[in-house]
Each structure stands twice: as structure tokens, then as C-alpha cells.
Amino acid sequence: MSSKFLTELSNDFETLFETGIGYDVIIYAGEKQSVKEIHAHSNILCIRSQYFRTAFSNEWAKKVNGKFVLEKPNITPHLFEMIIRFLYCGNIELKNLQVPDMLNLLIAVDELNIQLLVLHIQEYLIKNNTDFLRQNPCDILETICHQRGAFGMLYDYYIEKICNEPRILFNSNNLTRIKPSLLELLLKNTNLDMEEVEIWENLLKWCLTESKIENDPTKWSEDDIKKIKKSLERFIPLIRFYDIDPSDFFYRVYCFKDILPHDLIHDLLEFHIVPNMKPKPEFLPSRFSKLGSNLLNSQLIPLFASWIDRKEDMFYNYENLPYDFKLLHATNNKFGNSFNATTFHRDCDNKGATIWVAKIQNSTQLIGGYNPLDWNGNCGGKQTVDSFLFNFTDINDINTARVGYVSTSTSAVYCKNDQGPSMGNLYCFNSNNWNYGVNGDCYPQLGISADITVENVEVFQVIKRK
């Protein structure tokens, strides 16, 4: 029988570090008046860190009187001691660190290639210091975006946080401190949940502050206009101007026409004035929040488009979608808005191709299907070879998706006035209780239960872009 005494072992190694008995490494951490000499043992550092193993083997560290000598002026003594202590005993205490110091520690352990701590510090920041982003949005974003390849977890978390609550950043006094590269990154993001006209106004505010020009077009000189246009140039294609409603366009955009491209102003005027005019195809699609869905996230729309075109690899992304998705119909049983066939057909008939999704009650499961035809006509089965059903056992994990294309095309879609989006052996009755024929062969079996109760249902028109 084996026994483990890891705590005692850890304590002994910590004592070895503190006493420095037999040390053969001298590290000078910090710079100028704050430099501190730290003693360590090369064998322990080498076995615990690839960085030190490489440093000592390649003689990056010079030797003086038989001891390795390293200088790390970019890491403060306090943080460096924490890192070395961790390498000795496997313990680190973060709760007494302020967030700026924690970010500096994260940068330091990344430089030293201590991946266990890179991951641990990111997890700790996400779990325990979410409010810091509200206090210092610019500082933290600049730090993690500069090294987003290394800090992927933290980067994804904070970008998602900013996109969900953009006023954390855009309403802060620090907005004008954002560097152009970070601002561009945020404006490109399809998940930025803010009215497009507000995004435009914040961009303009940032630009005018950068250019030190007053926000009054009547006072702008020709040089001012040229300066503003140059500052805005890289950002204009990232603003979804077609999603700004006519009154906001007239009062909050058009008044700045002198600093916008003439072709853009012409196209927007044409769009707002000429009936049935479509947006120009070269502009980015609407941000995901414009879709109005309570069930989908921005990863799913490109996936649906890829399934429609039967792309087995090189899936679409949100920026190169060949389709627009328009919400036609939504129900939510939690709020007394139960599914019924009459309102489904009222909203979805004669709309052409649609994709529908339904959340299964008391679960994270999402099912759905694509109908390339239409839902009108009390005619029973309709034939197509392009329809499909899908099932996400966990909507929060895109990797749980299963999709199955129709195999018996004559019954691919079923249109009846007293049913919802029935397809093949999936029967969507005039209620929230539906049935899936697990022995049917119209579509492959996807793990959908025989008896299902749907909680939310959404139907989207699928519109091919020109």
C-alpha cells in the first residue's frame, strides 16, 4: 500500500526556496531602485519549466563564480517570487493581488511558458473579478487583446461581455483612449448588442476626440473634414448603416454627410426613398442582435447556411453568409404564448424557404428543420430532396449537433392547416406536444425522442442574397 505525503513534500521544497541552501541561480528581478536578488536551484527550475531548461542549456544565463545569473527587469520582484515559489511547491495565492498585478502576473507566466498558471489565472479572473471590466474596460481589453493568442479564454470571455453589455465600454470616460486596432476589432464583431446608430455616434465621438475637433459640422473647415474622413476611413465599412432606421438616418447620420463617402450617402438615400430597394451586397450583414432570436447564437446561423448548401468543410462564417435570416414567428410557452398552428401559418405561409427551431422543455436540447419550399396549402406531403432535420443535444455546445437530410423525398414536408412545421416522421401538432416517429425512415434517426414537449419555437425566412 502506498502513502502520499504531498503537503509535507511541498512545504519542504518551499523551505528550500526560502532558505536558499545550495542555490546555484541568481535572478535579478525588477529594475532601477526596485531590483531584488532572488536565489534558486537550477535543477528544480529546469524540471518545472521549459523556459529555464532552455535558458540554462543554451547558456542564455551567464555564469559568475559557478552560478547562473539571469536578469528580468520587466517582472517585479514580488511577482517573480510568487512564480518561483509556485515552481518549488506548486502553490500560489491570488486573492491578495489587485487585478492590474494579476494581469502583469499573467503576462509574466506566459513569457516563462508556465501554462498551468496561464490557465489558472485566467480562470481565477473570470470567476472572481468580473466587476473589474466595468471599472477599467480599456486597460484590461488592451492587455488581453495584445496577447489574445496566449490568453484565449480571457479574451473570449471579456469580448463576449463587452458585446453583451457594450455600454460598459462605450459609455465609459475611457472610450476615447481605445486604440484604433481594438476599436476595429469590436466594430467587426457581429455580436455587438447595441443599436447601430449608437455605434455610429460612439465611433464619431471617438474620432472627433482623436482629431481634437468639436462635434459641430457647421464649424468644420475643409482641413477638419479631410482629417475626420481620414480617421474614419477604416471604420466606415464596419458600420451597418442599412440597419439604421430612416428617422435616425436623417437626423443622426445624414447631417454628417460631408465626412462620409458620397457613394454611401447616395446608396442610403436610394435605399430609404425608393420602394423595395435592397441593401448593396458589399455591406456586412446585420449584427446578430438584429435577428431578434432568443434561441440562437451567432455560431448557428453560419452552420445552418452551410447545411443548406451541403458544405462538408470550409463552413461559412457570419461575414460571408449567402443568406439572410428573418424572424417570422416566435412563441414562448413560459409566458403563456403557446404554439398553435393558426398563428404559425398566418406568419409563415407564402414566405418561401424557412428554417425553424424548437427548444425542448426543461432541457438544453434544440431541434429544428429546413424547408426549402413553403408552408402554405392544406395539401399534405410536399416533395423535395433538399430539406433536413437537426438535433442539438446541448445548444450551448455546437459539437453536439446532428443533421440528417431527407431520404424519402415524397414526404419531406407536410403541410396541414392544423399542424405546425411537420416534416417526414416529425409531427408538430396544434399544441406544444409533438411526436417523432422513431421507426420512420423519411429522415435519419438523430436521437430525438418519440414524445416531446416544446417550450420555444422560432421560424426564420431564408432569403438568398443577390
TrEMBL record:
SUPFAM superfamilies from the UniProt entry: POZ domain (SSF54695)
Pfam family, one: BTB
Domain (TLDc) ranges: 294-463
Transmembrane segments: none
Superkingdom per UniProt: Eukaryota
Domain (BTB): residue spans on this chain: 23-96
PROSITE patterns, A to Z: BTB, TLDC
Protein name: BTB domain-containing protein
Organism encoding this protein: Rhizophagus clarus
Lineage: Eukaryota, Fungi, Fungi incertae sedis, Mucoromycota, Glomeromycotina
